[in-house]
């Protein structure tokens, strides 16, 4: 769709320049060179990669094995407790929207326009129309009236699991209370209003989120950009619109007047015990004295005896909430972890006289999760005393939908799908969720991070409310052993007046500075929020910010978000990221990356099952484009990374291939920085709705995309990873391939690394071996594999002593070099496989293969002349790759990077007389005239991909290695804008989307007929690339050799 992409705009936010954050340089590489070894056993290097289709078929059997493996941990072996609460669920309601100025809500309950709904219910509208009120109405019976309950020492309580956003509660026309916030449970004592027959009205008020809608409109709703969504293809499916409703359970509960409301078991593993915090609610107006609190601790999901007990006399309980704290020693403590999630239960009874007045049970687990801030770098994680790293994914609604639909089997599967992918944590993105989700995280051994629902900003009037909701958040999750960390805001954005009134920060200051906290005030909020967390749970690890666009934060670890292979160059360009560079962050700390990824379209089955028919319709030529999908980003972003397609199946395949590639390259890059990064989460794992947020690795029907398996492979806990920035090399070259050892476990390992190079036909070229240590929860480069490329019989493998470099005098007296240039060889390139494996005690733990394309050197020659420094460098590099000798012939190809009038005149004359010319335009903004035509090097985002005309697709010019910089660099930084007719050799795609159909081509290399000759205009970025990318060299060589067949003459 052509509408503005709000989230893409946010992602393209640049890091402020006036900051203490600094880009992180790559880790130093060792001097170790792998030694040639004996030919190793074939099983070490077997090429066993399975197809996507096979792996997708095996996936469901593997998931079934995971179900059986973790089924025992879902057992409940706890003893029964006396029943002291009677619960009457409230599920059937009527709903209607309230008119904007409607005040007579009680007489309005007799109006028409009500619809019958079943709780949970979540709905729109959202966006610009997101400020609205609605009324839920429910009639219910009570077994007894309020005065009868009061006489028996009982209370009638309305309990809500969660209502979005502000809930105002009325019973029988009487106001009983309100609650703000969409995630926390709340309840009200309605005993004084209760009759036998009752009417409940819940006024649900929604607002525009603080993040806002577009650049100006915002509201006071503490909501980020994530929630359950609702079933509406135009709005409700997409990126969790800020709807509202009663989307958790609601019930009438008959409780004792002295009620055990809350249990929190705080593990004190080093002290061989636990602290039990017992929350007791006194519903009376009087102090209640002399009662007993008894707590017993039992194994829950494994057989065992009582593990600890307590009997304490409580002196008194005042009106309202009381919290009692006791230490209970434990014996034979079993610690909870992700592989063996052992659980216990605390059973508490409040007794008066001989009877039990109130009883409660609470599941808990025993673990320690620590962020060590005493050593450098600070922020290293330790789980149960061992080094730990968090590898996971973001979650945006699918788990909530499982709970809302009552589909706990699917909830279990969604967690196991993550574990099958070697994930050990979920970032439950930008909000707390229903408690059932945390219960299953506990049972299945899935750690999680819980975020306060703030995104970008915090409104000044909501400071205190936000701190209150922080307390609610920690209170909700503190009793769950799976909770490891909380955060306070997602992607805070800089609001700062700068010297430039037109830059993004100054504009935002004008639009938002009078409404939102500035960064120093936001840091004050973080400090207050940390205190609120401490009061609830002093052991919680806190990370102030997820994806900081205005860092550094004053306290705690930094985190960045990086979509560099989708929102191009976001965070850090992919070549630098792969080489080891990281975006600017706070120094001296371990680092997290809480979001990264790329979009892959839904599988065809989901499209055909759910999409509106108009989304699937092809055009009159039978072509289909994804711009029909509401809020899909593929139409606007795809052109930066892969060719445009024309059928649904092709679009699905190519988008998913790119997503898988981005997933692997970025995950590998982050894992290689295990020395400084200890938390990463891909965005996302599973979609909640069709086309909801298609960066997911599985669609809403839990069908894997290719990227799921790429991520699974990349997250293997013990891995060998091969890295080189080179992809197209020459025969006879020795390519230094780094062998990285990646260890996400808590134990250091000693392994043997074996590596070998194989030709396309399977012939072994060479083998190497090395022994190395894999540090716990870290990464290390074990050394370099000197991978020697094969040569072909009868073909020279190096330049001759005189390879063609020399000096000629150009016209006008200009000095220019001449070179004999290697052209495309008759024999085509060959795929070479480099495979490495790691072995421990004779067992192959992991293997990985890297493929290089090896080009032959050529004895063909072309005499060319260069004008300009870059042109001379290009010819020099091409000459070094040629086996040709210099011949005393007049050059018939003129390559020029000299844009002076005299040089352009010589170039034009050379071409018009029948020669081939190549004009290299490198500087964005350059404008010249050639042959009477304007040629403009229009600035463009630096891209790593350029598409090609059909006959030129054989030349790989994407992800080019820059030999001067030592990493993969951009393919282009400008495009050609000219009216000179000609053939588009290479091009990128326009960003402005048509209403439907193919996007415009923006030429990068164009071949034009000029007089009797051929002129090639090139905006390719060539500095440092020529000579280091054999495919690029072959393309340039062919363009210099051929004149092209153009029917038009300039």
Task: Give a verbal description of the structure.
It comes from Candidatus Limivivens intestinipullorum. It holds the Pfam family Glyco_hydro_2_C. Residues 259-366 form the Glycoside hydrolase family 2 immunoglobulin-like beta-sandwich domain. Belongs to the glycosyl hydrolase 2 family. Residues 151-206 form the Beta-mannosidase-like galactose-binding domain. By secondary structure, this protein is an alpha+beta fold. It folds into 4 domains: 6-68 and 369-715, Alpha-Beta Barrel (TIM Barrel), CATH 3.20.20; 86-254, Jelly Rolls (Sandwich); 257-364, Immunoglobulin-like (Sandwich), CATH 2.60.40.10; 722-774 and 807-1041, no CATH class. It is built from 19 helices and 53 strands. The strands form 12 sheets. Strands 38-39-42-43-44-53-52-51-47 form a 9-stranded mixed β-sheet, sandwiched between helices. The chain has an 8-stranded parallel β-sheet with strand order 27-26-25-24-23-31-30-28. A 6-stranded mixed β-sheet has the order 2-36-35-40-41-33, with no helix packed on it. β8 and β9 form a beta hairpin. α8 packs parallel to α10 and α15 (648-672) runs parallel beside α16. The longest helix has 25 residues, at 648-672. The radius of gyration is 33 Å and the shape is globular. Mean pLDDT is 92; it is low at 794-825, 882-887 and 1045-1050.
Examine the coordinates and then state which fold CATH places here, giving the name of the CATH topology of the largest domain.
TIM Barrel
The CATH superfamily of the largest domain appears as Glycosidases
Query: Helical segment tally?
Result: 19
Can you name the CATH architecture of the largest domain? Answer: Alpha-Beta Barrel
Helix % is 10-25%
Q: How far do the termini sit from each other?
A: 38 Å
Low-confidence spans: pLDDT under 50, at least 5 residues?
A: 794-825, 882-887, 1045-1050
Oligomeric assembly: single chain
Structural class: alpha+beta
The side-by-side strand order for the widest beta sheet comes to: 38-39-42-43-44-53-52-51-47
Task: Report the mean per-residue pLDDT as an integer.
Answer: 92
Which CATH class of the largest domain?
Alpha Beta
Domain count: the total is: 4
Largest beta-sheet details = 9 strands, mixed
Overall shape: globular
Beta-strand content bin: 25-35%
Using only C-alpha atoms, the radius of gyration works out to 33 Å
Find the count of extended strands (DSSP E, 2+ residues): 53
GO molecular function: hydrolase activity, hydrolyzing O-glycosyl compounds
Domain Glycoside hydrolase family 2 catalytic: 378-457
Domain Glycoside hydrolase family 2 immunoglobulin-like beta-sandwich: 259-366
Family: Belongs to the glycosyl hydrolase 2 family.
């Amino acid at each position: 769709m052509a509408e503005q992409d709000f989230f893409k705009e946010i992602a393209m936010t640049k890091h402020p320049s006036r900051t203490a954050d600094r880009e992180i340089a790559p880790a130093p590489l060792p001097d170790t060179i792998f030694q040639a070894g004996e030919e190793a056993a074939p099983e070490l290097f077997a090429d066993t990669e399975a197809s996507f289709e096979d792996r997708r078929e095996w996936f469901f059997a593997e998931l079934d094995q995971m179900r059986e493996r973790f089924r025992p941990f879902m057992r409940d072996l706890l003893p029964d407790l006396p029943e002291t609460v009677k619960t009457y669920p409230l599920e059937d309601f009527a709903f209607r929207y309230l008119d904007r100025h409607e005040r007579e809500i009680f007489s309005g309950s007799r109006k028409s326009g009500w619809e019958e709904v079943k709780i949970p219910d979540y709905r729109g509208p959202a966006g610009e129309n997101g400020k609205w009120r609605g009324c839920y109405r429910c009639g219910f019976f009570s077994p007894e009236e309020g005065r009868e309950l009061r006489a028996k020492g009982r209370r009638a309580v309305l309990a809500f699991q969660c209502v979005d956003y502000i809930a105002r509660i009325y019973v029988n026309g009487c106001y009983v209370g309100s609650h703000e916030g969409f995630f926390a449970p709340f309840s009200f004592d309605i005993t004084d209003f209760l009759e036998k027959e009752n009417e409940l009205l819940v006024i649900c008020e929604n607002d525009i989120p603080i993040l806002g809608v577009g650049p100006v409109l915002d509201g006071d709703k503490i909501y980020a950009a994530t929630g359950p969504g609702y079933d509406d293809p135009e709005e409700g499916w997409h990126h969790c619109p800020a709807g509202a409703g009663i989307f958790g359970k609601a019930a009438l509960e008959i409780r004792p007047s002295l009620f055990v409301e809350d249990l929190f078991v705080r593990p004190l593993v080093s002290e061989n015990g636990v602290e039990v915090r017992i929350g007791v609610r006194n519903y009376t107006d009087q102090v209640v004295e002399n009662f007993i609190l008894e707590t017993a601790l039992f194994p829950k999901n494994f057989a065992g005896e009582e593990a600890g007990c307590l009997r304490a006399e409580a002196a008194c309980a005042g009106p309202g909430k009381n919290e009692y704290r006791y230490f209970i020693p434990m014996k034979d403590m079993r610690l909870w972890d992700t592989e063996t999630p052992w659980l216990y239960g605390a059973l508490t009874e409040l007794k008066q006289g001989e009877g039990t007045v109130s009883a409660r049970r609470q599941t808990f687990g025993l673990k320690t999760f620590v962020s060590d801030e005493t050593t450098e770098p600070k922020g290293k994680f330790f789980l149960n005393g061992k080094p730990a790293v968090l590898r996971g994914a973001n979650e945006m609604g699918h788990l909530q939908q499982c709970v809302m639909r009552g589909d706990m089997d699917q909830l279990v599967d969604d967690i196991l799908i993550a574990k099958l992918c070697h994930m050990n944590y979920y970032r439950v993105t930008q909000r707390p969720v229903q408690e059932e989700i945390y219960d299953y995280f506990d049972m299945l051994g899935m750690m999680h991070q819980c975020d306060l629902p703030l995104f970008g900003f915090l409104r000044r009037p909501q400071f205190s409310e936000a701190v209150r909701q922080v307390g609610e958040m920690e209170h909700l999750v503190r009793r769950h052993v799976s909770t490891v960390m909380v955060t306070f805001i997602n992607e805070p954005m800089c609001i700062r007046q700068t010297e430039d009134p037109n830059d993004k920060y100054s504009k935002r200051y004008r639009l938002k500075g009078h409404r939102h906290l500035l960064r120093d005030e936001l840091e004050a909020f973080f400090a207050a929020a940390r205190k609120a967390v401490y009061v609830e749970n002093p052991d919680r690890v806190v990370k102030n910010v997820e994806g900081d666009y205005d860092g550094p934060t004053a306290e705690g670890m930094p985190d960045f978000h990086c979509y560099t292979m989708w929102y191009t160059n976001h965070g850090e360009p992919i070549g630098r990221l792969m080489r080891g560079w990281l975006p600017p962050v706070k120094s001296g700390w371990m680092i997290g990356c809480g979001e990264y990824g790329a979009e892959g379209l839904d599988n065809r089955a989901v499209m055909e099952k759910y999409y509106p028919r108009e989304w699937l319709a092809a055009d009159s030529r039978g072509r289909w484009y994804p711009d029909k999908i509401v809020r899909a980003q593929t139409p606007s972003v795809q052109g930066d990374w892969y060719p445009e397609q024309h059928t649904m199946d092709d679009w699905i395949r190519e988008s998913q291939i790119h997503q898988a590639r981005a997933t692997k390259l970025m995950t590998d890059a982050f894992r290689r920085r295990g020395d400084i990064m200890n938390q990463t989460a891909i965005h996302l794992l599973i979609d909640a709705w069709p086309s909801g947020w298609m960066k997911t690795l599985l669609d809403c029907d839990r069908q894997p995309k290719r990227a799921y398996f790429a991520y699974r492979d990349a997250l293997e806990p013990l891995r060998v990873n091969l890295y080189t920035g080179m992809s197209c090399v020459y025969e006879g070259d020795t390519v230094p391939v780094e062998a990285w050892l990646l260890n996400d476990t808590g134990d250091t390992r000693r392994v043997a690394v074996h590596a070998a190079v194989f030709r396309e036909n399977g012939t072994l070229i060479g083998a190497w071996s090395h022994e190395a240590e894999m540090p716990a929860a870290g990464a290390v480069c074990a050394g370099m594999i000197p991978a020697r490329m094969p040569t072909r019989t009868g073909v020279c493998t190096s330049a001759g002593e005189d390879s063609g470099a020399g000096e000629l005098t150009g016209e006008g007296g200009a000095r220019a070099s001449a070179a004999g240039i290697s052209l495309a060889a008759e024999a085509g390139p060959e795929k070479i496989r480099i495979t490495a494996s790691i072995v421990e005690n004779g067992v192959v733990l992991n293997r990985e293969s890297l493929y290089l394309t090896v080009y032959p050197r050529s004895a063909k020659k072309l005499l060319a002349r260069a004008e300009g420094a870059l042109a001379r460098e290009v010819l020099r590099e091409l000459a070094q790759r040629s086996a040709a000798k210099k011949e005393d012939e007049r050059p018939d190809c003129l390559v020029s990077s000299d844009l002076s009038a005299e040089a352009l005149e010589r170039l034009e004359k050379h071409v018009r007389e029948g020669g081939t010319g190549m004009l290299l335009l490198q500087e964005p903004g350059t404008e010249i005239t050639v042959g009477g035509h304007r040629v403009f090097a229009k600035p463009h985002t630096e891209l790593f991909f350029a598409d090609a005309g059909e006959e030129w697709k054989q030349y790989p010019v994407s992800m080019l290695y820059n030999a001067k910089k030592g990493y993969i660099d951009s393919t282009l930084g400008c495009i050609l804008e000219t009216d000179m007719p000609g053939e588009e050799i290479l091009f990128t795609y326009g960003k402005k989307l048509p209403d439907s159909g193919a996007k415009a081509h923006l030429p990068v290399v164009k071949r034009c007929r000029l007089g009797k000759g051929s002129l090639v205009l090139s905006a390719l970025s060539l500095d440092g690339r020529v000579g280091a990318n054999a495919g690029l060299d072959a393309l340039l060589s062919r363009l210099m050799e051929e004149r092209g067949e153009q029917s038009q003459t300039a």
